[in-house]
Predict the 3D structure of the following.
Amino acid sequence: MNILLVGSGGREHALAWKIAQSPLVERLVCAPGNPGMARHAEVRPEFKATDAERLAAFAREMKADLVVVGPETALEAGLADRLAAAGIPCFGPSARAAKLETSKAFSKAFMERHNIPTAGFGVYERPADAIAALKVFRPPYVIKADGLAAGKGVSICPDARDARAEIERMLGGRFGEAGSRVVIEEFMDGEEGSLFALCDGKVAMLLGGAQDHKRAFDGDLGPNTGGMGAYSPAPVFTPELVERVRVEVVEAVIAAMAAENTAYRGVLYAGLMATADGPKVVEFNARFGDPECQVLMMRWADDIVPYLLACARGDLGRLPAPAFSADTVICVVLAAKGYPDSPLEGSIIRGADQDFGPDVQVFHAGTRRRDDGQLVAAGGRVLNVCARGRDLAEARDRAYAAVRAIDWPGGFHRTDIGWRALARDEEAGD
Ligand code: AMP
Ligand code: GLY
């Protein structure tokens, strides 16, 4: 098979690594790709993930049997729609179905219509209306930009003064078009987790869960980021919780989307809060999580390609659930100093591509290879150091040993990835 994989982050490097292991693959092209992905595939840096028309034309030209879309920006740009028009199977939803992620106002109204458990909310376009609405909510106030903001469009404000300032900032153009409407939500208290399901438009297959670390610094401090680390499995997902999410969220979404004539194909990422009243949806994403994808790919035991193709073709129902290894996998994100506000570019990275043995993988995200061959930072999140172990403590020790072996003075990372689950183990006397 010929496969085109769209994207250039750590998520896509992990997907490329996994897809390249399939005996079904004759040719794998990554557009735009990154220097890490060049180890497993042909990379085509001349494309942008949002070049829907050019990418669809290229997919036709390379006779792609399947296109796998990594990032939400490509979905929003209508890549899946163009591929559908060209008759090329695509793993990833249409722009309309991707609104579950790309418009929080759409996604909240959809959940309300279909009784999918989530926080109470209101949507506002005018600052005065949003500020007046603060009276119906209790602090802390959760204020969100409607559109895509790379995981940075949410503010949790301790008091009304802060909330007012945030509303004025967002509606005042801080996120451009993405902030032309704001959503104000009830604050949900609980532990968060991300659950992933493959969908073919009609049926859903749960892949399992992971826990992300959204804040930039140790102790869950500092600004929200795209994610600073993850691990899977995550003990927050007890079998009872997973069963409730399967019925109340995942299957409900797939059925409701089909009923609304917006069949959902690809991966559904449910960001969840385990509250005292049961699971509630924080957000949906229409793609794999980054860095959650990296840990899921390392646990996924079977060939992934038949699953991606079945989602695209609409015949997932004939496959058994894929096998996942019982190991725990952890991912530590190395980010450029200054991330998330203003990451410094161009600093030299040494030792990222050494052989760390079978239990460790280093996935590239924002890296660039200079003309002299030197690897340098070229983005916010730059490398993902992933390791497996029999338990989380073993995985963590292996990952941090590899982090120490990478020489990159221009980067930083969190030293406490996995702390929640490790604290549980300690409590249980493990
Ligand atoms: P989102 O981009 O919607 O996932 O939000 C980013 C982060 O903000 C989430 O991962 C949560 O930690 C937090 N958050 C979002 N909505 C709520 C809410 N209603 N209550 C509590 N925390 C929230
Ligand atoms: N790690 C969070 C996300 O991918 O949205």
